[in-house]
Amino acid sequence: MITVQDILDIADLDLKLLAGAKSVSNPVRWVHITEVPDPTRWLRGGELLLTTGYGFQGPEERQVEQLKVLIDHNLSGLGFGTGFTFDKVPECLVRVADEYSFPLFEVPYHVPFIAITEAVASKIVNEQYSLLQRSLAVHEKLTKIVLEEKGLEAILSTLSALVGCSAVLFDFHGVVLCEASYRRRLGAELIADLWRNISDRRANRQDFALGIEGVGSGVQVYPVVASHRIGAFLAVVKDSGDFSDYDRIILHHVVTVTALELVKKKAVDETEKRLAGDFFDELIASDLYEEEIARRLAFFGLDPDAEHLIVLVDIDGFKTLGDGPSEHEDAVVQDVKERLHWAVDEFMARRDMPFISASRSDSVMILVQPGKGDGHKVLAMAGELKEAIDTMLPEITVSIGIGRPHRSLVDLRQSYYESLYAIKIRKLKGGRGVLASFDDLGSYGLLLGLQDTLSLEVFCDSVLGKLREYDEQNSSDLVKSLACFLEANGHWGDAAEKLYVHRHTLRYRMKRVEEITGRDLDVAQDRMEFWLALKARELIEQPRKPKGGRES
To answer: Of all residues in the chain, what percent are helix, strand and coil, respectively (each to 5)?
Structure first.
């Protein structure tokens, strides 16, 4: 960047500064020679204007107004050639220029204007060439970082050192991917403030030139576009001074290589997710032997000999979709599912718990290795995960099921079904948005061990079949009354109150249950079989969730 001072410092030109010493650092974009009273229609700002004063002839008031017009047009300065129209620069012009801190210098008669224009042009060309050489050097340095796969941290560290700045790279959701500092770290509070400002401007479609109190000269934010969409935001805080042209060239290169790095990272992530998805599909389908499961786990960086279990995050429904069909509904649903998987991975990545995950239909399946005897940690972790998802994705509700930990690799499939059943059973009483562990299912867990609907139906029919048939033929409630009686642990008063009937009525109904079934409610085995049959019936009649169902 060429300044007025750089031109004044050229000894051969013998230029003399008369006014505006405080502004000699004004950048000079080009030199323009004119003798017309008002040349502003041909100027764009940033020019150094040279004149012999021909256009300044007239009374002082007119001279002053002409100069003010030039000052208002954001010129870099004015070179006044003496010995032609004026023997010296008019005092009124010197006074006004000094008042407005506008650089005004005298060009002696023996100094041709072309000498000034040639000197300035030479400096600009040399500076541009130097800038180009430095730009190429930066590009090569950053390209080498990418080729050597040193990652985003190395890119930002290079940026910080070259520009003298602190830098933070946010992903699209505001998660800090990496940061670098020159003299001082920004701190968590300031980083959070940066993201709030970025989010506000993004939401309101404003530009990303930020001014945040307490960070020096301000902040530059650059959206990083990867694969035709904004994938990240680079926030740069200069420790001191303004951003130079060279700084901006560096930032342009950094944004470009950052985009390339994000594209590469995305490709790797998508490949890993696809492989994880294939692994889970084959695992559930029982298509893998123990040796192959062990090999796959080792590939994902997991210990095949550790205890492992499945956590299932299942979408209950969407709160924000309308009642009618929408041409954009599928895209909205898919976007939410992708964000759910992203939220799960971000949460798990911050936990000291090895894992892999994959999306399956309306759910995210997580294989975790909690460590021996640390199963309780998983329940606490799942609760925190649910809270995080509820906050980050308020448009959906999710339920989370936890299977039992297993050491045998072939039992991983069993852990998946345990997590699935834990959700289903808990929903029988808890509705949507449940958190359930298979270990807490009690007698349901015993029944689910059958994993055979036909066996459950045969068992139910042998115990409750005659009662259900009697209820259908007589419009009675013997099965319901039996369930209330057992749930009340045989307390007549509590059960009758729940059914809104008299105790005598309930006693009559239980007598009829015994007569129809041939069983005795005073016998522990008969009570147990009644209870298990009722629970099995609940499992069989558990309604299926429609795919992509909305909240009711």
So the answer is: 55, 15, 30
Do residues 142 and 155 make contact, with C-beta atoms less than 8 angstroms apart? yes
Q: Is-contact 80 93, C-beta < 8 A?
A: yes
Residue 372, domain member (yes or no): yes
Last residue of a domain, one of 383, 407, 441: 441
Q: What is the CATH number of the domain that holds 362?
A: 3.30.70.270
Beta-sheet pairing, 309-318 with 229-238 = unpaired
Angle, alpha carbons 137-143-148 (nearest 5°):
130
Q: What is the DSSP letter of 406?
A: B
* pLDDT lower than 70: segments of the chain: 202-218, 320-329, 372-375, 428-430, 441-456, 458-459, 539, 542-552
Question: Residue 223: which residues within 8 A CB-CB, separation 6 or more?
Answer: 208, 230, 232, 233
Residue 50 lies in a domain: yes
Give the pLDDT confidence score for residue 199 in this predicted structure.
Answer: 79
Assess whether 426 and 306 both reside in one domain.
Answer: yes
Domain final residue pick, 406, 441, 476: 441
| Token pair of 368 as six digits | 């975790």
Say what the alpha-carbon torsion angle 56, 60, 65, 67 is, to the nearest 10 degrees: 50
Q: Tell me how far apart the alpha carbons of residues 84 and 115 are, in angstroms, rounded to a whole number.
A: 17
Same domain, 391 and 322: yes
Per-residue tokens: 305: 């000999």
Q: Mark whether 200 and 294 lie in a shared domain.
A: no
Residues 259 and 354 in one domain: no
Query: Hey, is 242 helix, strand or coil?
Result: coil
Model pLDDT for residues 463-499, shown as the tens digit of each residue: 888 898 899 999 999 999 999 999 898 899 999 999 9
The 10s digit of each residue's pLDDT in 334-365 is: 888 888 888 898 888 888 889 999 988 889 99
DSSP alpha helix (H) spans, 393-502? 412-430, 443-448, 453-474, 478-487, 492-499
> What's the pLDDT score for residue 182?
82
Q: Cβ distance 56 to 36 under 8 Å? A: no
Identify the pLDDT of residue 530: 86
Beta strands 396-402 and 77-81, pairing class: unpaired
Same domain, yes or no: 481 and 413: no
Specify the 3-state DSSP secondary structure of 550.
strand
| Domain shared by 224 and 84, yes or no | no
In 3D space, the residue among 288, 547, 546 whose CA is nearest the CA of residue 409 turns out to be: 288
Q: What are the angstrom distances between the C-alpha of 490 and each of 469, 476, 512? A: 24, 20, 16
Determine the Cα–Cα distance for residues 273 and 514; give it in Å rounded to an integer: 57
Kindly state whether residues 320 and 437 are assigned to the same domain. Answer: yes
User: Phi and psi at residue 539, in whole multiples of 5°?
Assistant: -65, -45
